[in-house]
Amino acid sequence: MSEVLYEVRGIAKSFGDRPILEHVDLDIRRAEFLCWIGESGTGKSLLAKILLGLVPTDRGTIRFDGEDVTRFRERDWLTIRRRVGVLLQSSGLFDSVNVFENVAYGLKEQQLLPLDGMKERVAQSLAQVGLPGIETMMPGELSGGMRKRVALARAIAMRPEVLFYDGPTEGLDPVNVARVNRLLLRLRDQLGITTIVITHQMETAFGAADRVLLMADGRVALEGTPRSLWGSSEPTLQPFLRIARDVLSAPRGA
Ligand SMILES: Nc1ncnc2c1ncn2[C@@H]1O[C@H](COP(=O)(O)OP(=O)(O)O)[C@@H](O)[C@H]1O
Ligand SMILES: [Mg+2]
Fold first, then answer.
1. Are residues 144 and 182 in the same domain?
2. Domains of the chain: total
3. Which ligand is the nearest neighbour of the Cα of 215?
4. What are phi and psi of 126, to 5 degrees?
5. Which protein residues touch ligand 1 with a CB less than 6 Å away?
6. pLDDT higher for 62 or 181?
7. I need a surface site. Which of 16, 59, 124, 171 has the fewest CB within 10 A?
């Protein structure tokens, strides 16, 4: 089994005459915690959508687990997406049904488990995000941090191999930011989930990720471990480093 799960080469995407992604090369390794940073509008969310088969690329190739998926049709992508969890900025919980129904949603839709198994999987997933026993609560009763964690429970209930997380901690207070970061790391460690986090939070990028990737000018401008980037003099990274050094005394990792 190759260490590389996603092999991305020469991805480009324009809307009208406006190029957003110009040439993206990227490897995503199995079970790594990879953080994408960059100014708003640099195409981070767009790149995630392309890697999920939700938006076709104009050029280049995408290999997933060794298979060229670039020209996949919708139904072929479905088999990939079963292995890939996605969490978007808004938690996306259904407010009219309780936590159990929210977490069980994907399991029911794909008819993956009988009812007993489903109850067990939901209980286990809620425990894994540190919210055991809240099945009968309604989303409206939950704090912002709890909602994010319930959304995460819904994603991991599907036992994904990969998790794309777009803006997991935006809008949370520092205590909850730290909690979600620890949780993502633990899930990666315990379940081996390849974790891709798009964020403006430098605590996450430099304090939790294994590797940080900076998007700028339609490409991956820079990538490296938090420690290797910490002393970088690359101009595009400086605004991010200033914030990182404000919120962290040292980067994660050796
Ligand atoms: N489907 C689309 N149609 C037109 N423009 C789009 C579409 N998707 C993204 N864009 C444009 O691409 C740019 C990058 O968007 P996005 O990926 O959301 O950036 P980021 O996540 O880095 O902030 C934005 O200017 C956005 O308007
Ligand atoms: Mg975005």
1. no
2. 2
3. 1
4. -65, -40
5. 15, 20, 38, 40-46
6. 62
7. 16
